[in-house]
Design a protein that fits this description.
- This protein has one domain.
- Helix content is 57%, strand content 0%.
- The chain has five helices and no strands.
- The radius of gyration is 16 Å and the shape is globular.
């Protein structure tokens, strides 16, 4: 049986929620260490970098627009993305195996600060329902 198609808005709401979850991880050294403890098979530095790319399509910024993303939220997402790109250029290749090799470096600190700033903006309206379209005031 085929899955029912979901609306663009509902998909945006789900992306918003994944974005918030990602930012919670990227913003917190403790969360990153806990993720590493819970998932010993994964290389958490790669996970923290790659998960953002899994969520955000930088080729189509229209996805992060009203009503699901306010203008301020959209700008915060773009600003975070710019920091994320810079951090990619500054982290070693291959990535270190453990998160503690990056926590405390200037690049990783910038990533975490930018994630906290972006999370603060998105948290004002928070997560949205994943099964029903959010109603917005006109």
């Amino acid at each position: 049986m085929a899955e029912p198609k979901i609306s663009r808005q509902l998909l945006q709401q789900r992306i918003r929620n994944r974005m918030i979850e990602y930012l919670e991880l990227a913003a917190s050294a403790e969360e990153q260490r806990e993720y590493e403890r819970r998932t010993p098979i994964a290389v958490i530095p790669n996970e923290v970098i790659n998960q953002w790319e899994d969520i955000v399509n930088a080729d189509d910024w229209d996805w992060y627009s009203e009503p699901v993303f306010s203008a301020e939220e959209s700008e915060a997402i773009r600003s975070f993305h710019a920091v994320w790109l810079a951090v990619i250029d500054e982290t070693p290749e291959p990535m270190p195996y453990t998160i503690d090799a990056l926590i405390g470096t200037s690049a990783w600190n910038r990533l975490m600060v930018a994630a906290r700033d972006t999370l603060r903006v998105l948290s004002l309206r928070g997560r949205f329902d994943e099964e029903r379209e959010q109603r917005f005031r006109e």
